[in-house]
């Protein structure tokens, strides 16, 4: 209703509606223009004549109507403004005064004509209502209106949403959200579900009424035991049932056997006849029952369509069949043949080698096939064994026989080469080889080959003996050499000093009991050091140890050496440190001029090195010093702390700061506490490792419900609640904590 | 009056409570491991909230732990206390102690005389249940210390230099004349470690399952006994030594050398982590405090030094020889020379060690090595006539932790423990000077390559600086025309820009080259000359 009114209002008030007459207006103007263009001169010339005409016309009107001339004044004036009309005045062409104002068409004018029509009263009423609500503003454009609407809606919805904020905030800030508060998992047994069953349908209700009939229930209660008795089955009944079932089973079995037998029959004629039979019966059926036949046809058609859909009929084109038959295989072969574009195998000589090897393999395969065929033939022939020998000496057969012995001989030669090259001491295998050869040598055919192979063996043995001789002749230098490698510089120094001593002492030192070594000073230890190897050869185990240890006072010289042992130690250490520092932060090179440059004149020579060179050098020096200052051992004269990075241990460090953290200190502090059960009391472990969401499997998480939450809730409360939980837990497992705690302590010692 | 009394009592109670709370606070501090960082600088509110919650949980955990320690620890360690200023604890002899202690403890004072096979080297299992004694002349014995029964004795018929237990009593390793052997519980040889050479000293790192050994040539070997793999083979290059100890805190192996230096090693680096000059004479003995911060060294120049390993500085220098040193679980330091044992203590906790007990053995007994028995107030001494054991009150940890080591372990528990130990085995890389560094952020040694943005910003900054610095001289006619000035200005700016642009170009080329290289499969260098030369396209 409102809408309708609005529309009406709009229509009456909208300027658009006034456009219609304005169109006419324009037309008029155009007409006027035309008139102007056409009759400009006419106007000028007829001005006076018109005035005269007007005067006469007024007078005439006065005469006729008897009204004063003033009444016609306005008309006249208007006539002055409005120049002649092109068209006669009509309802399609209203006069200017009608358009301009006083003579406007009002609603009443329009309604006047409708007065006698039915429904006029209604229209009138609406009109009256419209008159009452007078000034109606033009509605805003839709864009702005909608925007306003949205704003209002937003305000309301914002208010609506804001009430959730504290609740959501609390949930967000909570370290753990629990969803297992009311864990009613519902029915867990069939009985529980059944007990809740309520009959709904007719049938169910009927059943329920019967089942829960009071009489029945009572009767059941009363003589339930008797009912049980009635359940008894007689022996005859049971026997009969058994027999029946047995018969059924045997029938089924027979039928099955028969079907199997028929399926096994391979006779084509039989099957053809069978098929014919089947068709006949089918045809008879179709004749008998056209409906069924139709159905059958439909079914078959459907089956056929289904079959067509399968892959079986997919690749039936000529090309596809060809590819299926051979194309794919061919492609595969090509792929096999392909040589990789890059890598070791792409090298030309590798390619060649591959080709060669492949050819060889093929040939071998061919030979193997031939051989196989031959052997098969021999097996087939009863007299093959005799023939083989004869055949061996002639033509093709020789090849096969020779082939058998050839690889063996090659093998032997190969091993010979190996041993000849190596000076290892496992010549036993080589010897065994010879024995093998000797055994095999009984066969006539392979003899010559073995004669060849024996010779290099002997040669090899000689070489081995030679090398043994070498070892026996001078074992000494070797051992001393080893010691020289392993001992440090200091040791070497002392060794060189006392070399003669050590050599002369050799045997006595070896026999000396070892636990005296601690009294001996480094020098003596060196002696022992060099002799440890020979000790093993000369004496063995307990025998070497003197059963009665005797304590010998160290000699004077040794005591003096002991006293002054640490004199140069400090200097050595400093040198060591310097070396290591230089290694890690090398000293910058001193700037030097190219010979010949800047040396032509004395002036240049006096100037010295260019300033930039000096600057660079200084910079490098400063950098090095800074680096040295940064070292942990910069202020510790007696300590060298290695600054080398351990690449293997790097994987135990984090590469970058993990996401929410922005400062290294905070992160490192946050990981300082272990959270495992070994390091924390049992009461705290649960809280430390609780997941963000605690929920039991199977529990449905319901959408959030509105709850009044105090937005300015104290955080202390939270904490307190957490503690309460913990207390509860501690009550539940009171016995364990002690142990765990101790573990925590122990581990902390170990790790921290 | 009564009211006054009551208030007094209340006051007393209060003070008691305060005392307890103070005590607890101290303990809580210990369990908090340094406390939280300052969160005030954090701008991320979410992270702040999370961290503060975490800290709260840690605080609760520490408090609970402190309470357990306070109330549930079964016993407190005792020690000798002098009655007055006249009496000195070091005057108290073993005989005096024997009179005071119970029978089971007095059984721990004994001498075992076995002169035929001595001197003896001793080793204890980590729970102190078993002792291995190795006579130099081939006698190996496993002794059940609780029942004082030798479990197994074998004679290997070779020199035996050292013996250690592996993870527990079921295996022990003995250094014999040529090789190191691992024996089972029954004394049956399980392994022969041939590739370590003639070893002088063995140590077992029980958290890593590594057997560390130093051989006659100064080579340090690390062998993983759970897999049988050689983990590290390091040439120390500092000569022969048999002074070796493992720092129980970080499993770093310390070696003492003849040059007076002590070096510390880990299996994954060939250079020593730390090399420090401790003495002017050769280092004769070395020991680490169980907390890992204290090291004691003895030099042949008659000095015993205590070092703070956090600062690598000397804490205390004591006069005297020591052929062997050992720290007890409670931090007592024993030094042994000749036939004389001296025990130092710092019961005040100031790390200022002073004389606590003395013990001299029968003349002629030369101490070869000694060890404190874990979880007992006992010092086992191996010497030239066998071995003996004496009581040192206050040396052992009174409260054992069955998760770490259980002195009353049953067979089943032992089995379980072995499995747990194997599961918790630490990889050898975790050995480092400061194990708390594990998991922290890697320190960037070199400054990473600056990003494109940074480079651009730098370039702009320099250009701005150059622009500001341009100061045109007034030159003779024609040379300070505006056009010339502009040209000059542009030239200066371009010059400042050039190095940056060049750098960019180079980087671009490098990246292109890299791409090209990475596209091809790289050949080994020896084969590269055979590769087909591709036409440059």
Automatic annotation (TrEMBL), chain A:
Pfam family, any one: Utp14
Gene Ontology CC: small-subunit processome
Region: Disordered, residue numbers: 1-55, 495-538, 573-594, 704-752
Claim: Phosphoprotein is one of the keywords in the record: yes
Biological source species: Quercus suber (Cork oak)
Location within or outside the cell: Nucleus, Nucleolus
Coiled coil location: 351-378
Protein name: U3 small nucleolar rna-associated protein 14
UniProtKB/TrEMBL annotation, chain B:
One cellular component (GO) term of this entry: small-subunit processome
Keywords: Nucleus, Repeat, WD repeat
Protein name: U3 small nucleolar rna-associated protein 7
Gene: UTP7
SUPFAM superfamilies cross-referenced by the UniProt entry: WD40 repeat-like
Transmembrane segments: none
Pfam families membership: BING4CT (PF08149), WD40 (PF00400)
Coiled coil (residue ranges): none
GO annotation (BP), single: maturation of SSU-rRNA from tricistronic rRNA transcript (SSU-rRNA, 5.8S rRNA, LSU-rRNA)
Source superkingdom: Eukaryota
Localization, UniProt: Nucleus, Nucleolus
WD repeats: 276-317
Domain BING4 C-terminal: start-end pairs: 355-435
């Amino acid at each position: 209703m409102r809408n309708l009114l609005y529309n009406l209002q709009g229509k009456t008030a909208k300027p658009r509606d006034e456009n219609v007459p304005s169109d006419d207006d324009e037309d008029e103007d155009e007409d006027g223009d035309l008139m102007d263009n056409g009759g400009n001169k006419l106007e000028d010339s007829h001005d006076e004549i018109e005035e005269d005409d007007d005067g006469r016309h007024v007078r005439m009107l006065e005469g006729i109507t008897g009204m004063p001339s003033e009444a016609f004044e306005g008309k006249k004036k208007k006539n002055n403004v409005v120049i002649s009309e092109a068209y006669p005045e009509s309802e399609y062409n209203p006069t200017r005064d009608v358009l301009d104002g006083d003579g406007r068409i009002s609603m009443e004018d329009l309604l006047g004509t409708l007065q006698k029509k039915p429904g006029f009263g209604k229209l009138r009423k609406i009109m009256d209502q419209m008159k009452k609500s007078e000034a109606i503003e033009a509605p805003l454009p839709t864009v702005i209106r909608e925007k306003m609407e949205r704003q209002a809606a937003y305000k309301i919805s914002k208010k609506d949403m804001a009430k959730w904020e504290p609740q959501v905030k609390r949930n967000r800030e909570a370290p753990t959200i629990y969803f297992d508060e009311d864990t009613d998992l519902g029915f867990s047994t069939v009985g529980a579900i059944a007990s809740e069953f309520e009959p709904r349908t007719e049938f169910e209700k009927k059943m329920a009424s019967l089942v829960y009939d009071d009489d029945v229930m009572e009767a059941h209660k009363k003589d339930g035991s008797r009912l049980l008795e009635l359940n008894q089955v007689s022996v005859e009944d049971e026997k009969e049932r058994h027999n029946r079932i047995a018969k059924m089973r045997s029938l089924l079995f027979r039928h099955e056997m028969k079907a199997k037998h028929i399926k096994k029959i391979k006779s084509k004629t039989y099957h053809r006849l069978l098929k014919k039979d089947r068709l006949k019966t089918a045809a008879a059926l179709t004749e008998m029952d056209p409906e069924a036949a139709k159905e059958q046809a439909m079914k078959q058609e459907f089956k056929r369509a289904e079959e067509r859909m399968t892959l079986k009929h997919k690749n039936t084109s000529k090309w596809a069949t060809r590819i299926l038959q051979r194309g794919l295989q061919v492609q595969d072969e090509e792929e096999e043949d392909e040589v990789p574009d890059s890598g070791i195998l792409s090298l030309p000589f590798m390619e060649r080698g591959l080709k060669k090897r492949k050819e060889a393999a093929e040939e071998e395969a061919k030979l193997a096939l031939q051989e196989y065929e031959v052997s098969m033939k021999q097996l087939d022939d009863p007299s093959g064994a005799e023939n083989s020998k004869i055949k061996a000496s002639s033509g093709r057969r020789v090849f096969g026989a020779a082939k058998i012995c050839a690889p063996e001989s090659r093998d032997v030669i190969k091993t010979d080469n190996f041993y000849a090259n190596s000076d290892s001491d496992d010549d036993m295998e080589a010897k065994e080889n010879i024995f093998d050869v000797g055994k095999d040598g009984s066969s006539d055919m392979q003899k010559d080959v073995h004669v060849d192979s024996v010779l290099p063996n002997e040669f090899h043995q000689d070489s081995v003996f030679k090398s043994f001789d070498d070892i026996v002749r001078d074992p000494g230098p070797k051992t001393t050499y080893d010691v020289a490698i392993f001992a440090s510089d200091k040791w070497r120094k002392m060794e060189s000093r006392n070399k003669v001593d050590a050599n002369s002492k050799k045997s006595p030192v070896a026999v000396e009991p070892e636990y005296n070594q601690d009294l001996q000073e480094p020098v003596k230890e060196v002696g022992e050091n060099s002799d440890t190897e020979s000790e093993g050869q000369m004496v063995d185990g307990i025998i070497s140890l003197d059963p009665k240890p005797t304590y010998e006072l160290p000699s004077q010289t040794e005591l003096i050496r002991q006293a002054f042992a640490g004199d140069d130690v400090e200097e050595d250490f400093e040198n060591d440190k310097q070396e290591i520092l230089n290694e890690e932060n090398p000293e910058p090179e001193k700037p030097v001029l190219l010979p010949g440059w800047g040396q032509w004149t004395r002036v240049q020579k006096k100037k010295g090195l260019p300033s930039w060179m000096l600057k660079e050098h200084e910079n490098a020096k400063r950098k090095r010093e800074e680096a040295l200052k940064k070292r942990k051992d910069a202020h510790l004269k007696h300590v060298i702390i290695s600054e080398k990075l351990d690449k293997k241990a790097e994987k135990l460090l984090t590469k970058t700061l993990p996401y929410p953290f922005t400062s290294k200190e905070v992160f490192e502090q946050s990981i300082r506490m272990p959270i495992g059960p070994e390091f924390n009391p049992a009461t705290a472990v649960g809280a430390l490792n609780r997941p963000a969401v605690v929920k039991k499997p199977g529990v449905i998480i319901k959408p959030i419900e509105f709850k009044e939450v105090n937005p300015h809730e104290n955080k202390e409360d939270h904490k307190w609640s957490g503690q309460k939980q913990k207390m509860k837990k501690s009550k539940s497992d009171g016995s364990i904590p002690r142990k765990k705690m101790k573990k925590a302590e122990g581990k902390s010692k170990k790790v921290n | 009056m009564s009211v006054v009394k009551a208030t007094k009592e209340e006051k007393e109670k209060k003070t008691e409570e305060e005392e307890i709370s103070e005590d607890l606070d101290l303990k809580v501090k210990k369990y908090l491991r340094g406390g939280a960082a300052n969160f005030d600088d954090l701008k991320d509110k979410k992270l702040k909230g999370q961290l503060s919650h975490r800290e709260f949980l840690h605080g609760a955990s520490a408090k609970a732990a402190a309470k357990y320690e306070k109330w549930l620890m079964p016993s407190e360690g005792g020690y000798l206390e002098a009655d007055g200023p006249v009496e000195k604890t070091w005057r108290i002899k073993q005989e005096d102690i024997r009179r005071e202690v119970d029978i089971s403890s007095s059984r721990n004072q004994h001498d075992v005389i076995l002169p035929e096979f001595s001197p003896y080297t001793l080793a204890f299992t980590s729970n102190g249940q078993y002792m291995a004694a190795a006579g130099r002349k081939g006698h190996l014995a496993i002794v059940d210390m609780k029942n004082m029964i030798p479990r197994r004795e074998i004679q290997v018929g070779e020199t035996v230099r050292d013996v250690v237990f592996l993870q527990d009593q079921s295996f022990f390793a003995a250094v014999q004349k040529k090789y190191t052997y691992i024996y089972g519980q029954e004394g049956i040889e399980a392994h022969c470690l041939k590739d370590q050479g003639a070893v002088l000293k063995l140590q077992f790192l029980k958290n890593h399952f590594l057997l560390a050994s130093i051989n006659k040539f100064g080579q340090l070997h690390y062998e993983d006994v759970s897999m049988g793999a050689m983990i590290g083979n390091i040439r120390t290059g500092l000569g022969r030594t048999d002074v070796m100890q493992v720092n129980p805190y970080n499993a770093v192996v310390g070696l003492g050398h003849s040059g007076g230096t002590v070096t510390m090693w880990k299996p994954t680096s060939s250079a020593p982590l730390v090399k420090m000059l401790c003495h002017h004479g050769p280092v004769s003995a070395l020991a680490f405090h169980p907390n890992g911060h204290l090291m004691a060294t003895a030099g042949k120049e008659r000095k015993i030094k205590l070092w703070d390993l956090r600062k690598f500085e000397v804490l205390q220098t004591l006069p005297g020889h020591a052929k062997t040193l050992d720290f007890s679980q409670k931090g007592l330091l024993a030094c042994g020379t000749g036939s004389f044992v001296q025990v130092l203590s710092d019961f005040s906790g100031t790390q200022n060690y002073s004389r606590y007990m003395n013990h001299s053995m029968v003349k002629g007994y030369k101490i070869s090595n000694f060890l404190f028995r874990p979880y007992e107030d006992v010092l086992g001494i191996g010497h030239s006539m066998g071995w003996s054991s004496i009581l040192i009150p206050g040396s052992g940890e009174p409260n054992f932790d069955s998760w770490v080591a259980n002195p009353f372990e049953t067979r089943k528990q032992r089995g379980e423990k072995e499995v747990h130990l194997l599961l918790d085995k630490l990889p050898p890389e975790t050995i480092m000077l400061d194990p708390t560094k594990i998991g922290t952020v890697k320190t960037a040694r070199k400054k990473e390559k600056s990003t494109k943005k940074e480079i651009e910003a730098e370039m702009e900054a320099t250009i701005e600086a150059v622009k500001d610095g341009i100061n045109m001289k007034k030159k003779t006619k024609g040379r300070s025309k505006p056009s010339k000035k502009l040209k000059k200005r542009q030239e200066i700016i371009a010059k400042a820009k050039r190095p940056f642009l060049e750098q960019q170009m180079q980087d671009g080329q490098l990246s292109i080259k890299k791409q090209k290289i990475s596209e091809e499969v790289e050949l080994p260098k020896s084969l590269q000359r055979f590769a087909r030369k591709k036409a440059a396209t």
